[in-house]
Write a structure and sequence with these properties.
42% helix; extended
């Protein structure tokens, strides 16, 4: 497998600013036979993150402070997401009580 180099114009990201520590990406490529349009490519990618095998989807996180790239599976992130949601609910309950 060859390594690809992406230019800023190819990534076109307006959401990552210079002060952000973590840059998260899911980069998937499609040829003309797999996706007939940009919208179809997005639809295929969204399906990839939602189907029965999505647990193994690889998300890449670049840490600007340590200059290291991390691979996080979707399952790892979803498990943490459940924990974060529980903490946020507890915080909201605490705010209502005060």
């Amino acid at each position: 497998m060859s390594r690809s180099v992406f230019t800023l114009s190819e990534l076109g990201n307006i959401y990552a600013e210079s002060g952000h520590r973590y840059i998260v990406s899911l980069i998937v490529g499609y040829d003309d036979h797999e996706a007939a349009s940009p919208a179809a490519a997005v639809a295929h990618t969204l399906k990839l993150t939602r189907d029965a095998d999505a647990d193994g989807t690889h998300w890449y996180v670049y840490d600007r402070h340590t200059r290291s790239l991390h691979l996080v599976t979707q399952r790892q992130a979803e498990d943490l997401m459940d924990t974060i949601e529980e903490e946020e609910i507890a915080e909201e309950d605490s705010d209502v009580d005060n």
